[in-house]
TrEMBL record:
GO terms for biological process: proteolysis. The keyword Hydrolase applies. Gene3D superfamilies: 3.40.50.880. This is Peptidase.
């Protein structure tokens, strides 16, 4: 399915939209060939691998292990822990990165750490300059303008608070990805979110074998032949 992401505008903001390359997925399984088509020189790039969302999820250890997968493919992987008190190191790694990879886990915790570390603004700036953004599960949800819609799937940690004020996302795209549709563990929460926003075309439901690919102002859903499309 093809989409036209937000159009219009002028100047630097419009130029930033034209340079965007986003790959927003439920799961990395089976997605590498499609990612290589989006980023043909992936093996020559320096990757900022951000595992922070996984720290607040029971299944997070598996997500964090994916940095070894990227290294096996020849990617120069640098793990960027947003909870590191050395803010200068986080900022330096993000400014030197040629591609961002943001793990799955708890989206509210992820956005809290992106904001408090100062990473959110740097990522927005670099993506507007053309640095590709790969987001898995929570990393995909975080690309939306706000992340409150994912509450049926992700619990708000105490540090985020229970305020009714919207929790902003990275606003890399107008779309709101709903990951793990039909998934074994998270499918029920995903179905609830999809039903609640069925009339809003900005919400994009994704199975575990699907990804939303945004290139410039165009977006489409890509489906792979993953062996375990219903995992998670």
């Amino acid at each position: 399915m093809a989409y036209a992401d937000e159009r219009g505008g002028a100047g630097a903001h419009a130029q930033g939209r034209a340079r965007r390359r986003l790959f927003l997925m439920s799961s990395l399984v089976g997605m590498t060939p499609a990612i290589r088509r989006l980023i043909p020189d992936l093996g020559c790039r320096r990757m900022a691998f951000i595992p922070t969302a996984s720290y607040a999820a029971d299944y997070g250890a598996a997500n964090r292990l994916m940095h070894w997968w990227w290294r096996a493919l020849g990617v120069d992987v640098h793990v960027v822990d947003l909870t590191d008190a050395r803010r200068w190191r986080i900022h330096d790694e993000l400014r030197r990165a040629d591609v961002f990879y943001v793990c799955g886990g708890n989206t509210f915790y992820l956005m809290y750490c992106l904001q408090t570390s100062g990473a959110a603004g740097i990522i927005r700036e670099r993506v507007a300059q053309g640095v590709p953004y790969l987001g898995e599960s929570a990393g995909a949800v975080a690309a939306a303008p706000s992340i409150d819609y994912i509450a049926p799937m992700d619990e708000r940690p105490a540090m985020v608070g229970k305020s009714a004020a919207p929790v902003p996302g990275l606003a890399l795209s107008a779309y709101r990805v709903v990951p793990h549709v039909h998934g074994l563990a998270l499918g029920r929460a995903a179905a609830h979110i999809v039903r609640a926003h069925a009339a809003d075309s900005r919400f994009v439901p994704l199975r575990n074998d699907q990804a939303l690919v945004v290139a410039g102002t165009q977006a489409r859903v890509f489906t792979t032949r993953a062996v375990l499309p219903l995992a998670m």
